[in-house]
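pls ignore typos typing on phone
dioxosulfidomolybdenum(VI) ion + seq
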Amino acid sequence: MPLAKAGLDRVSGGALVGQAIRRREDLPLVQGQGRFVADIPLQDALHIAFLRSPAAGGAILGCETAAAAAMPGVAAVLTAADLTPLGRLTVNPVLPLGAAPDFPVLAAGRVLAVGQPVAAVLADSADRAADAVAAIDLSLKDASRLPAPGEAVFALDWQAGDAGAACDAAAHVVAVEVRHSRLAPCPLEGRAIAVDYHAATGDVTVWLSSQTPHRARSELAGILGVDAGRIRVVAPDVGGAFGMKASLYPEEVLAVWAAFALCRPVRWTATRGEDLLAASHGRGMTTRGRLAVAADGRFLALQARIDAPLGHWLTTSAAVPLWNAGRILPGPYLVPALDVAVRGHADGTAAVGIYRGAGRPEAAMLMERLVDRAAQALGMDPLDLRRANLIPPAAMPWQGPTGIVLDSGDYPRLLELAAARADLDALRAQQRRRRAGGELIGLGCAMFVEPCGQGWESARVRRNADGSVDCFLGGSSQGHGRETACAQILADLFGISADAVTVRHGDTADCPEGIGALASRSTAIGGSAVLAAGREVLARLPAAGPSATVDAAQVYPAEGEAWGSGCYIAQVAVDPATGRVQVERMVLADDAGIVVNPMLVAGQLAGGMAQGLGEALLERLVYDTDGQLLTGSLMDYALPRAADMPVLEIGSLAGRSPANLLGAKGVGEAGTIGAPAAIANAVLDALRPLGVQDLPLPIGAEAVWRAIQAAQAAEPEELR
Ligand code: SMO
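k done
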């Protein structure tokens, strides 16, 4: 894969920032030396298995546990009645969501969704625990079908100008509705927790597959009513998270509660099926938008209504995707009038929360579909229409109509970079030639902006007497190369080799309080915290003398939000006989600000791109009308495979963000944001000669085939 040439705007004139040095994490991981939660040895641990609700609703008439409790190896069978009163999960403070909602750890009185934990068996082996679960007799009254989504539990609105009047008066108004599939984040490592109980102190150590270990500790303390000092949380190697491991889960709270209550080590490792059923899902939004356009192509107004299912309980950041999807509109474009409403609805399904992108892909899909449709209405080239409406770099920082402030970015240059990289004129010529030969070939473009986290992150840096440097991150890692990137920053700063820098993270016992590995914040804000702490150590060095150990901790508050951006161009071929879509080319032009390590950026883009391709073409969680999950295994839920992936052609504009010390922006979610919209636009472009105007997500072979058949049956004028 060609690597991006990063702008080598270095942190300190050193040699490492900007270099594609290899990830220090990889050698042990590929040698099987990784240490994940399930690898943590625990003496005499009890294993948990959960009885999960078989129905989407209904009153619990009885839950007979005596037979299960009498089975060999079973130490306890717990239902809601056995639990002490517990607190609630905190709601992410970025969200205006009033009081914390209910947070049932085990179903009490009623079941709320298929898969909800109702009872927990603790036994001396995972198999014995699972066997005992089968012996629990749960009876439900009026086990119900999937209820219709209820009243909105979350609502936000943004208005600027008079969008309604602008739409009434505009030369063109185009409309798009997009129903996003619900997706399963599917990290390689599922949820896992191992809790050691220290008999001498009554404290616990919690190994948790988490992207937010500090938050997990404070939430556990709050929910259990225990002093946080009695809980140490350690996130060891984490095999991906993608937003799915940012919130604490009922199962995890139960495990820690049980360790305290039974004074025993306890562990639970979710099966893939349990995660598909009961870990948080992503996406699922329905977006409806109208874009008003003047006769000359200027965008005049955007109206959007976005609805999302939130499931039967709310994760910490449940409404963040809605908040993001709304506030990001209209993306990188100048649109003077805007009217956006987002609504989140509780329902009888698994919790829906953040998943890589978290509202950004939905905003990009809506806007980019609208722009392509407007280009069609105007008879304009879709890239020319974008060129005519992009926010110019001279206007930065730009306050958008929802109140966001885009810190920096050169969107026109990004577009030209992508168009040049794709050699768009040649592609168009090729498309005409192949179309004339009967092939269905499409080109699609998508532009997007990517907010990269708000608030603060922290780091502690220690320069040892031998000149080596130790760094303790407040943030954590979900396998995305934090140790390598932070070592590069500090090696440059101290003028030492990267090998002389050790980086620790994920342990609340020795790392400063931090937020975590999410929202594309790790480099932009976390990297800035590392830089700030390192500079503080350097400043103290002269007074301390060369052979002293000097230590400094910094809580770094970002001055503003850094906004990454991108322009992606996809070329697809659609098989007219089967409807199968093949992505032939994928050009990614990104502005990730100061790039610490272009290999990490390329890795982020490839992973995000694979998930974006899955979203566009393959992935969908399906519930039936009874609320049963029909896609409960990876035989039914289609993840992309290596053969589905095109070679990525990556270009990079390394601007500098003024929003943080390092000048970095995020790129961890970029692939998931730009790829679905670019691919969807490309497939629609391929099918436009047949009269196909819309396609459902995912754009699977059957959906495409049906759309082709329907269009041919309708005999569009141009084919007669
Ligand atoms: S969806 Mo991300 O882990 O903020």
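The CA atoms of residues 539 and 584 lie 52 Å apart. The pocket of dioxosulfidomolybdenum(VI) ion is lined by residues 211, 241-243, 246, 354-356, 358, 518-519 (CB under 6 Å). more later
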